[in-house]
Specification:
The protein is α/β, with parallel strands linked by helices and 336 residues long. It has eleven helices and 15 strands.
């Protein structure tokens, strides 16, 4: 269990987006997530996310209690009209209920998604070096390739996105990695050439970007882009051909992902082959049992991921004296 160096005098360490990026390390986040998923399940500690909707705006709230040290939440404020979104993560010490950390959650959201995907892909892909295919070339794709490269040997990688300039930028940005990154002519070419296929791009018009007929034996698919009913990323044929589906939050993946809702509408049954990532990490489910299986990891994100990675960043920031210590005056008061 991590021990957070809480600040004296009821001060709160405030980390900006640049502070988070300065202290973040893939190994740090993936190790913290692995440890968190190994702990016995505590369903009451992480209630389902809620979304408040208004006239052209929404507020998503995800909260939880991590192990015995901190509790916290992530708030996402969205204004689709202006295409602006804000992410905020407060962390409280459990023993005192004092606010010990206040973090910009924008970078943490991208980091924790990719770090959890890397943990899952490392467990689910066949052993040894892998060929990775990226469908998408934005920040999620960049994060995912770097995260997986931190835990698994990658022999080569392919990337496709509709914009050739975006693909060229992606390849240039990944030039420091110790394996070649090559451009592919289509999403289908990526899927056929790669052992690990990472979907990290929103579908245009919510038309799926990956189809089951493109997948041969032994593929591991990472799907992160269908987190609400309105979103689509993989075709129902991908759900149908999967031997195993691993979900970070089973109930929310099954009930709230547009991909899975569409599969139900197409009469595809998948409940019996869907397991929680925590079950695989803890060894309650073996994960891949042979190199011919097609396995899909579906993610909608969770408060646990946010809180665990935020706590790791806060610990690292305190150790390196990064961020601002502020006496916000938001301290717990004794009742009764």
């Amino acid at each position: 269990m991590n021990t957070m160096p809480f600040e004296p005098g009821n001060q709160t360490r405030v980390l900006s987006d640049s502070d988070v990026r300065q202290v973040f390390r893939w190994e740090l986040a993936i190790t913290a997530l692995r440890e968190a998923y190994r702990r016995p399940p505590a369903h009451a500690a992480y209630p389902r996310r809620t979304i408040a909707r208004g006239d052209g705006a929404w507020l998503r709230m995800m909260g939880g209690i991590a192990d015995r040290t901190v509790m916290g939440a992530k708030l996402i404020a969205g204004s689709p009209q202006s295409r602006r979104f804000a992410y905020l993560i407060p962390l409280f010490e459990q023993a005192s209920a004092d606010l010990v950390g206040l973090l910009d959650g924008n970078a943490i959201t991208g980091f924790r998604t990719a770090a959890t995907s890397a943990l899952a892909a490392d467990l689910l892909a066949p052993g040894g070096g892998v060929t990775v295919g990226m469908i998408g070339s934005g920040f999620e794709a960049r994060h995912h390739l770097r995260a997986l490269a931190s835990v698994r040997q990658i022999d080569e990688a392919f990337v496709f996105s509709p914009n050739p300039e975006s693909r060229a930028r992606f390849i240039a940005d990944m030039a420091d990695l110790p394996f070649p990154v090559r451009e592919a002519e289509s999403a289908e070419a990526v899927a056929r050439a790669s052992g690990v296929v990472i979907c990290a791009a929103r579908a245009r018009g919510e038309v799926p970007i990956l189809h089951g007929e493109w997948l041969g034996e032994g593929k591991t698919v990472v799907s992160i882009g269908s987190t609400v009913p309105e979103q689509r990323e993989v075709a129902t044929s991908v759900v149908a051909c999967a031997h195993l589906i691993v979900a970070d939050v089973v109930d929310e993946v099954v009930e709230e992902s547009g991909d899975m809702i569409a599969a139900v509408e197409d009469g595809i049954s998948f409940e019996e082959k869907t397991w929680a990532l925590a079950d695989v990490v803890r060894g309650c489910h073996p994960g891949r049992t042979n190199d011919r299986q097609t396995i899909v990891y579906k993610s909608v994100g969770s408060a646990m991921q946010d809180i665990v990675v935020a706590e790791a960043c806060l610990n690292e920031a305190a150790a390196r004296s990064i961020g601002n210590l502020v006496a916000l005056g938001i301290n717990a008061v004794r009742k009764g």
